[in-house]
Amino acid sequence: MKPIQFQSQNSVFTKPKNSELECGSLPTLSVGITTPGDNPKTIPLIISCWELDETDIENILRDKRVWLTAYGVQPPVSLESSTPELVEQQIDYDKSKQN
User: Fold this and answer.
1) How far apart are CA 69 and CA 6, in angstroms?
2) What region, left, alpha or beta, does residue 72 occupy, with left being phi > 0 and alpha being psi -120 to 50 degrees?
3) What gap in Å lies between CA 19 and CA 28, rounded to an integer?
4) What are the sequence ranges of the domains in the chain?
5) Are 79 and 52 in contact (CB under 8 A)?
6) pLDDT in tens, 36-54
7) 66-70, 74-78, 92-96, range with greatest mean pLDDT
């Protein structure tokens, strides 16, 4: 499985210079979203897209599982099998700016 570039990405995370972890760049759509309620806060939302190879697909079909590993503090996360709504909205917004 590898992270891939996608149409609405607006940033790329790179490996910290002092890190000994083996990792590559991570293309993302990085935005701030506002929480609802009486005390709204803007929190970062980061979306990335991953491409599966044949072995990944075979493993998922066989095991019906996907594993998520996060280093450091575990943030709230979501795994999805279709394009997230926010990405679709960003693509629509980008198209409207071109017209």
Assistant:
1) 22
2) left
3) 20
4) 2-98
5) no
6) 899 999 988 889 999 999 9
7) 66-70
